[in-house]
Design brief:
Blueprint (H helix, E strand, L loop, with lengths): L4 E9 L3 H12 L2 E2 L9 E5 L7 E6 L5 E8 L2 H10 L3 E5 L4 E4 L5 E6 L13 E10 L1 H15 L2 E4 L5 E5 L7 E6 L7 E8 L2 H10 L3 E5 L3 E5 L5 E5 L20
Parallel strand pairs: 1-4, 5-8, 9-12, 13-16
Antiparallel strand pairs: 1-5, 2-3, 3-4, 6-7, 7-8, 9-13, 10-11, 11-12, 14-15, 15-16
Length: 252
Amino acid sequence: MMIRWTYAFADRPAARLADACAFWTAATGTRLSGFRGDGEEFVTLLPEATDPSVKLQGVGAGDGGAHLDLCTEDVRDLGTRARRLGARLVADHGDWAVLRSPAGRLFCVVPWQGEAVRPPVVSGSRLDQVCLDVPPSRYDTECAFWAALTGWEQRAGSRPEFTALVPPAGLPHRLLLQRLDEEGPASAHLDLACADVSAVRARHEELGAVLVREGAHWTVMRDPAGGTYCLTGRDPQTGRLPDRGGRDACTG
């Protein structure tokens, strides 16, 4: 297994990073690590008694979004594999690398530091999924790329526009690919699995998030830093939709 752990990144405008930190630490029951990077743009959300799996990044341009870090014991080997499958190298930092998927989404390959215990469910929810929103012309290629790179189990979603990649037990994040209705740039957002979407929504609104729209079994929210994310009606323990045959879903 080349991928030993994953980190879900919430990328938010640098000017609003403090707002993102306040919201996401409260929403996930974590505390902040020290800030890192040349501009102190990176910070990790630290849970109690388990290993971290979520980080925040302040970005200098755009509205941000989300991306995935893949942790491995051999960064060069995994990076080479990604390029052979169609990724492009963006930046080689020696012990870690930034790459771009065939649909244009950035991701990082970084050293595994021994992380093994995923964070717990907090107040009925768990941040457990990164969703890639992919234009129709790139969707099949993007699904094939991520399935081959991760080797994770591929499952059909609850709707035809969704494909889920489910990692081995113990890894903290699933990957969901959503086929968009129209052409345009690919994007990404974070998803939380919620035992009760309405209750989690109310709690997040108290923390400063606002409703964007509601779907069949998901709710799109905007955090105080301006980033969108989804509350999904999936079991926080298993990641699956209840009473729907274990199928997978999110939103667009």
